[in-house]
Amino acid sequence: MAAVNEMEMDKECESRRAVNRDNMAARRQSGTEEEVERHRLRDWQRKVSARQETSSKVPWTFNFALNYLPNRRYQDNPLFATGRVKVICSFCDAYRWPGEPQEICCSNG
Fold first, then answer.
1. Same domain membership, residue 74 and residue 43
2. Basic and acidic residues composition bias: which ranges (predicted)?
3. In sequence order, what are the residues at sequence separation of 6 or more whose Cβ sits closer than 8 angstroms to the Cβ of residue 15?
4. Measured by CB atoms within 10 angstroms of the end CB, which terminus of the chain is less buried, N or C?
5. pTM over 0.85
């Protein structure tokens, strides 16, 4: 029964799309140059606005590794500062960063 309902919904959706497609084609043909230009401008503004919203959400560190600048002192930035490797595992004598879990090297023996 559910499959029949889905088929009916698909047919309704397809017929609605066909009507919309025909209406849009008729509207485009009957439009003046001024209306067409206004529509293009509105489309362009919408795309630019969407692009700006998307780009403002990207963090400034995005793709930092791909845009590496050798003359920049990354170690001075606290966001990238990792400190020295000074913790030694008591089981396997592996070096770890401060704050790394003990299980990272040998699972505590």
1. no
2. 8-20
3. none
4. N
5. no
